[in-house]
Structures are given as C-alpha cells and as structure tokens.
Structure prediction request, 117 residues.
Amino acid sequence: MVFRRISIEEYSLLNKLVEDYKRQLYTYNAMIRRYGFYLKPYHVVVKHSRGKKIKYIYYGRYWYRIVYMGKKGSTSRIKWVYVGSEKPSPELPDPPHNPLEGLVLRIDEEGIYIKEK
Prediction:
C-alpha cells in the first residue's frame, strides 16, 4: 500500500465527516436493532513494528451481531460477532451512504497518512 502524508486540517475534515456519518448511523442502528444487527463505520487495527505503534483505520461497512454471554456480577457481558461487509439480511433497510467507504488511514508517531488509490 502506498500512503501519502496528510495535514492536521485534512484529518480534522475527515473526522468531521465521520462524526456526521456516525449520527446518521446511530439512528439507523436504532431502527434495525430488532433484527439483531449493528453497522460500524470503521475498523481499527493496531500493529507494533520495530518498537513503533502503528494504527490503521479502515472505513467501510462492518456488520456485527451482538451475542449475550451472561452476567458477571451485575454487569451483562456481550460479544460482538463480525458477520461481514455485506448487508446480512435482505429485509434490513439500506444503510446511509458512508462518504469515506474504502478509505484507509495509517497513524504513527511521525504523522497521519492516507492510502493512495
């Protein structure tokens, strides 16, 4: 993958787009809760390489189902189970459009980088 460095201003703009989209997604997830599925707008992976911590953020559609695992004391335990990137059931309404779908960011101690297409 080839990445190019982005400015703090560009990163702030991306975060604003993500926050706007997340508001739409909260409404959508509340609407589909009865089907037992949830849609997450991005996935974060943290890797350690040569003493450096590198964080990758993948923007897309990540469908999950929540599985109840019982209680530990008074706290309910749940497990998020990934079910894929495609809508898991045809009866679900279409989700809102993700403006950043397919985007990949890499963040390390040297800066913030965006994947070149």
Q: What stands out?
A: Residues 3-59+89-115 form one domain. The chain is about 20% helix and 50% strand. The first strand starts at residue 3 and ends at 6. The mean pLDDT is 93.
